[in-house]
Automatic annotation (TrEMBL):
The chain crosses the membrane at residues 25-47. This is HlyD family efflux transporter periplasmic adaptor subunit. The lineage of its organism: Bacteria, Pseudomonadati, Pseudomonadota, Alphaproteobacteria, Sphingomonadales. Gene3D superfamilies: 2.40.30.170, 2.40.50.100, Helix hairpin bin. It holds the Pfam family BSH_CusB. It comes from Sphingomonas qomolangmaensis. InterPro entries: BSH_CusB (IPR058790), MFP (IPR050739). Keywords: Membrane, Transmembrane, Transmembrane helix. Residues 65-214 form the CusB-like barrel-sandwich hybrid domain. It comes from the Bacteria.
Amino acid sequence: MLFQPDHLAHFPTLVSIRPPRVTQVIAWMLMIGIGLVTAILFGVPWLQTSAGTGQVVALNPDDRVQSVTALVQGRVERWYVNDGDQVKAGDPIARLIDNDPDLLVRLRAERAQVAAEIAAAEQAMAVAQLDVGRSGQLLAEGLIARRDYEASQIRVADHRAKLAEARAKLSRVDVGLNRQSAQTVRAPRDGRIQTIDAGAGATLVNPGDILATLAPEAPVRVVELLVDGRDVALIYPGRPVRLAFEGWPAIQFSGWPSIAEGMFDGRVRSVDPSAQATGLFRVLVEPMPGRLSWPDDDYVRLGAKVRGWIQMETVSVGYELWRQLNDFPLEFRRPAIEAEAKAQEKAK
């Protein structure tokens, strides 16, 4: 008979009851499980993150998708490109013609007429200036009245005004001629024709109407993330970011980034000082130097969707669960932030 404690000697029925072995095993498993869970909650670290979604954008405004617009009023006479064609800077895209086919001829004739008027005004003013010189000499000799001398000066002023008016008219004609002469729309930079407004070929287009959309080649890419305003106060340039690109297989554990697969590294480049219309703040993320390069342009193009996790402070798993259940903000540690900011300033 097994040894029984003295305080159970008065309870023979309780002593005689033996729990099933399965119950004992389950009890031990529960006790061990509770111990493991407690150890995990208070002993395992968890990296807090601020999650956001966004897209791939071009850092340089010249590298973003551009609209090629009409320069003059008219209609499209000819397209030089099709959707998807590669173009170089200066390559023709479309040729416009005015509704009046003889407009350029008349503008050139008007310019020739104005140029002749300028030549005549210049010659008349030269003659009038000679007349002023002769009148001044005759006035000094007392052969003419001062009124005649002043009349010759007035004629010079009139010719000068007519000459200035003719030159202004020539400038206006040149402006119109140059605008109408710029009827060939050209590519502003190297890139690929994304779409063409085919309807513009059959209708009247005005200056500024979109004829085609150009997507520049090989842009410098960054990621544009939209994050919650509750977390933006803790985000500053230099914060590490983990990125999952659309269409790229990835397994992410935000709290344990070391075991994630298919993720790419970045760092915060800038944070917008004001919120978007949706109430979210835009954070620009650039590639992290010295880490795995982002996928090529053929796999991750401009506009591709991205999900990102901005890495914050390290806490215990139990604290993170408690924070999530109470909907509290992320951990804020001013000394760590100040130390990292000073390190970045020294590095610059």
